[in-house]
Amino acid sequence: MFQTQYPSRLIHDKIYELLKQGKRMDRRRPLEFRKVNISVNLIEKASASALVSMGGTKILVGIKVDVGTPYPDNPNQATLTVSAELLPLAYKTFEPGPPDENAIELARVVDRCIRESKAIELENEVLCYIPGQRVASIYLDVYVLDYDGNYFDPAVLASVAALATAKIPRYEVQNGVVKKAGDDQVSIPMRKFPVSVTMGVLNDKFLVDPTAFEESALDTSIVVGWGDEDEVAAIQKNRPGTIPIQALEELLEISRKCSIELRSQLLESLKTYAASAE
Amino acid sequence: MTDFVRAGDLVVPGDEISDEVKRGGRNTYLLSGRVRASVFGVVVERNNKFEVIAVKGVYKPSKGDYVIGVVKDVKPNVIEVDLGEHIVATLRPSSQRRRTERLSIGDVIYARVKYSGLRGVILEYDASLRKIEKGLLVRVNPVVVAGLLDKRHGLLNVIRSEAGCNVNVGMNGVLVISGPSVDSELAVLSAIRSMEEDFTSPDLVDRVVAQLRRSLIVEVEGDEGGGDE
Fold first, then answer.
1. How many A/B residue pairs have CB atoms within 8 Å?
2. Does residue A21 belong to any structural domain of this protein?
3. Taking CB atoms and an 8 Å cutoff, what residues of chain B touch A219?
């Protein structure tokens, strides 16, 4: 399709015309996600890894856990550092170089979804070795491998899937020194499984999980991260444009319902993985 | 004075097209008195010349081509038009031919190439320039364009009679399909996509018509199913 980074009147009008009939170019319903595939533990050397595809968009997340120092304002908490890269091979407008504002935005949204929902028990003794001095440092890296619209939702899915299936060494403190306790491995303790839902806005119509083609026609879009069924963890309006307040309430309710559906898919995949790992 | 191919034939580089030197057009070359194809593609006849439209490859604009583009930027003296595939053409509005409607970013236009060369691609700013107000904008392989414009097939007429849709064809591989309903436009789109898979078989027209009829029926049934929602 003719995808442009600037709006094309024809595409905008055509997608709106379809939405008024409750249809989309790829035959999805307006509030329907594309097909999601989640696989974990593909990268041997990483503490955890997850590959999620949502339609044509593919995201790879890798997690590395090290021993580090906590931040002074949270001395008894493990640290979490999220970074994201929009790889040039993923899309024609992704250029090589340090992360641009879009990559930074992706990293920030993933970070906020996980951090603000308190999904990880960062104060758990499994991650906190010498309070105030030595804690686990969790490095979470997001790589967009293939882009066909909406990298936020699969990135959050992959991050949570990786965190949930991570295996890190068990450490113990001997004479004030943090050492590995043999070959023992533990999981990263988690309370919640945050999930995000990206919605596009076209005049007065909404659609969930836009493709790259649809994104070129949107008036604006919004990403809502839900820690669980009742709690919003993060909201990001990732495009210029305005959203009326009345529309915002409807969007939040749509995202809540969609997040429940998406979370159940995620948990299903994790269950399948856990069963096969035994 | 013989032609060795007909319009619609598939040729490979080196294939002889004609021994009439003047009949060599785009993507052909001359060797030993014969006009030959220089790319792998489909032969079309335009302005009494044979040219070859490459099966795969970037569109190379040439003077006289009709193209469809999206207005990318409007500057004081020049309008930039995106023709796809990183070709950005320019339009220079002249005061002599003042247009009543002004172009703005996002508008889709149908224009003729005035010049294509070292200075870039320049489009004509005259009566041949028009704005396309509505329709389904799609990008196809330029080879499909060859098939659509081939008068022997008459595909554009077939599409009009079967689906009621008009197809604006740009040589740069951009089409705008406009019809009575979105469903008919999407049906035409799927028929055109089927052309991309096999553009050389002799029953091309029949296949396209069959695909069109299939898609139109599917859309109507889909409507009836979901009509109560």
1. 48
2. yes
3. none
Confidence of residue B229 (pLDDT cuts 50, 70, 90): very low
Residue A14 lies in a domain: yes
Query: What is the 3 state secondary structure string of chain A?
Result: CCCCCCCCHHHHHHHHHHHHCCCCCCCCCCCCCCCEEEEECCCCCCCEEEEEEECCEEEEEEEEEEEECCCCCCCCCCEEEEEEEECHHHCCCCCCCCCCHHHHHHHHHHHHHHHHCCCECCCCCCCEEECCCEEEEEEEEEEEEECCCCCHHHHHHHHHHHHHCCCEEEEEEECCEEEEEEEEEECCCECCCCEEEEEEEECCEEEECCCHHHHCCCCEEEEEEEEECCEEEEEEECCCCCCCHHHHHHHHHHHHHHHHHHHHHHHHHHHHHHHHHC
| CATH code, domain carrying A97 | 3.30.230.70
pLDDT at B227: 36
Per-residue model confidence as pLDDT tens digits over A136-191: 999 999 999 999 999 999 999 999 999 999 999 999 999 989 999 989 999 999 99
In chain A, how many domains are there? 1
A243 within some domain: yes
Which pTM does this prediction carry? 0.83
ipTM of the complex: 0.73
Question: Is residue A89 assigned to a domain?
Answer: yes
List the single residue in B105, B106, B139 with the smallest CB-CB distance to A2.
B139
List pLDDT tens digits, range B35-69: 999 999 888 887 788 888 888 777 888 888 999 99
Question: Given an 8 Å threshold on Cβ–Cβ distance, is B84 in contact with A2?
Answer: yes
Range of the domain at A71: 8-277
